[in-house]
Design a protein that fits this description.
The chain has about 575 residues and is an all-alpha fold. The chain contains 27 helices and no strands. It starts with 16 loop residues before the first helix and ends with a helix.
């Protein structure tokens, strides 16, 4: 019997141009809509003020805008400083421009999340529509989750936003390599992006370990062949990683808020504490309530303190499960490994003064997103029903994040929330008091300064601000007493200049000048002290001496507006006398 000839299936005709264009416009509109939603969600924070550490960032220092490009990049975090330098030249001292940069970086990083998740999903799931939808959802969670708010709305967290932007870009480029292995060009691109990430913030130095894990899990799968095949990348990266580690150790050696040199915080105490903190990050991701700019998270001085042993057992069990079930659930297993790897620089053995900080979740969040999409892809639910459910989750997250951004847009609301959630921590009280003082509510600030002083007796900055609030309400003798307490803790020209300023207000010109003389002896470049000296001479009608002091202040800081205004006033008075 003659066999019938098997015919190859007829290739489908290409889609009409109109259909292809429709799809292109559809995706373009979706991207524009996502950007619009993101800016609406972060809108309240865009117009928010500088908060907490923002006023102490390098761009706020006098003369930062006059630094050369070489001076800017020859710093500890050159690309971060460069971004602030550019921001300052574009936006000046208005916080809107700084917030805008952070939101733009966040939105682009969300696109990298989409690429990373999509490329890994399609290695375990061939349903292209479903994987595309889940990658979009993962990107949406990254962009809209309220736990990310601190990394975006807080200008000082530019180090997180910019370093993760480069790190995720490096991951996206690495995952796009062809089956035969990475090329020299792609290796060079990954190295450049990795270098940019590390030169923005040191915690991204762990990225090479993540790349090795990718090669082990996926190239071709649970084998070292992928690692050996990509020698073009790992050979130079090993040298870069060694240099990066040396750089990180050098940075830690000179830090007073992180590293092994802190006498009151040992490495094992920090490790025990982080065994609990990691579970808090996981809970905040799954159930985002109790968010706080300044968590009051106690130290575990021993393995049994505050249940640290249970946190450690849980982490060991989680890692063991990820390894044991790596072949059955490769994406979820990989996500757990990546999450803990990327969290390790800030949440393992290297002590950091603040034990629980929400912005530390920003870099490792990609790991939990991979676990999430692996769970969702296994749910047997038609796409027509799954899509609305995912959209509803994003709407809820967006609403929560918008509410959180309302707090970040108002210092009083932000620190009021922190005081309510961390009532026994000094810093929230001190920061709320300062915000009240900035709003000319000095009397309302005083109880919070007092509470902060009770909780942290050796904080000269709190005593200084407390003194200024007392001066604001006319209690000048008490203000001077607080400044004397601050001097007992730390003798600075700044404190002496404030004492001189208050004495000058009281008309005690001799005591005022004595304090100001001490101030300029301790800090010869304290332009404000010279302004106060000029004010004393103005009070004693010694106009030529006052002029000399104001000019001296301007020679130190040409941007000193008070000195400039006083000179203009003197010139105007002299002009009137001549008439």
């Amino acid at each position: 019997m003659k066999k019938s000839k098997v015919l190859a299936p007829k290739p489908s005709a290409p889609a009409p141009a109109a259909t292809r264009n429709f799809k292109t416009w559809h995706y373009a509109c979706a991207v524009l809509l996502a950007i619009f939603v993101l800016f609406q969600v972060y809108g309240p924070a865009l117009n928010g003020p500088f908060v907490y550490d923002d006023p102490y960032l390098p761009f706020a220092a006098p003369g930062f805008e006059n630094r050369t490009l070489k001076e800017v990049v020859l710093t500890v975090r050159p690309l971060l400083m460069l971004s602030f330098w550019l921001n300052l030249h574009i936006s000046g001292d208005q916080p809107y421009g700084y917030h805008l940069w952070n939101v733009v970086l966040h939105s682009i990083t969300g696109f990298f999340v989409f690429l990373i998740v999509l490329r890994l999903l399609r290695r375990v799931d061939q349903d292209r529509q479903r994987t595309f939808m889940l990658a979009c959802f993962a990107s949406g969670v990254f962009l809209l989750h309220p736990l990310q708010t601190e990394s975006v709305a807080y200008i000082a967290s530019r180090s997180e936003a910019l370093s993760v932007f480069f790190a995720y870009a490096a991951l996206a480029v690495f995952l796009a390599q062809p089956p035969e292995g990475i090329s020299w060009v792609r290796s060079f691109s990954v190295l450049i992006l990795f270098g940019c990430a590390a030169l923005t913030k040191e915690h991204t130095a762990v990225l090479p370990a993540v790349l090795v894990a990718i090669d082990y899990y996926w190239h071709p799968g649970f084998s070292v062949r992928g690692i050996l095949r990509n020698w073009r990348l790992y050979a130079p990266m090993a040298l870069a990683a060694a240099a990066g580690l040396s750089f990180v150790l050098w940075v830690l050696r000179g830090s007073n808020t992180a590293g092994f040199g802190m006498k009151d915080l040992q490495w094992y105490e920090y490790f025990f504490t982080q065994c609990r903190a990691i579970w808090v990050y996981l809970r905040l991701f799954l159930l985002p309530y109790g968010l706080n700019i300044d968590h009051d998270f106690p130290l575990s001085r021993s393995i049994t303190d505050h249940g640290a042993v249970f946190g450690l057992i849980g982490l060991v069990a989680l890692l063991a499960a990820a390894w044991i079930y790596r072949k059955q659930y490769p994406l979820a297993s990989f996500g757990v490994i990546v999450f803990l790897m990327l969290l390790a620089p800030t949440s393992s053995f290297v002590p950091i003064r603040d034990t629980l900080v929400e912005r530390r979740f920003y870099l490792p969040s990609i790991g939990l997103l991979l676990v999430l999409v692996d769970v969702l892809r296994r749910i047997e639910l038609p796409k027509a029903r799954l899509a609305p459910a995912l959209a509803a989750v994003l709407i809820v997250l967006g609403a929560l994040t918008h509410h959180r951004n309302r707090l970040w847009g108002d210092s009083l609301l932000l620190w009021g929330d922190a005081v309510a959630k961390s009532p026994n921590k000094a810093r929230p009280h001190s920061q709320l008091a300062f915000a009240l003082q900035q709003a000319n509510r000095c009397a309302d600030a005083l109880p919070h300064y007092e509470k902060a002083s009770q909780l942290a007796k050796s904080d000269p900055r709190n005593l200084i601000n407390w003194a200024l609030a007392l001066d604001c309400v006319g209690r000048q003798d008490e203000a001077i007493a607080k400044l004397r307490q601050a001097l007992a803790l730390e003798e600075t020209g700044h404190v002496y200049s404030l004492i001189g300023m208050i004495y000058g207000k009281q008309g005690r010109l001799k005591e005022s000048m004595e304090a100001l003389d001490t101030a300029v002896r301790l800090e010869p470049l304290n332009d404000t002290a010279f302004v106060y000296r000029g004010n004393v001479y103005m009070s004693s009608n010694e106009i030529p001496k006052a002029i000399a002091e104001y000019r001296h202040a301007l020679a130190i800081n040409p941007e000193n507006q008070v000195a400039r205004m006083m000179l203009l006033r003197i010139n105007a008075t002299n002009a009137q006398k001549k008439q």
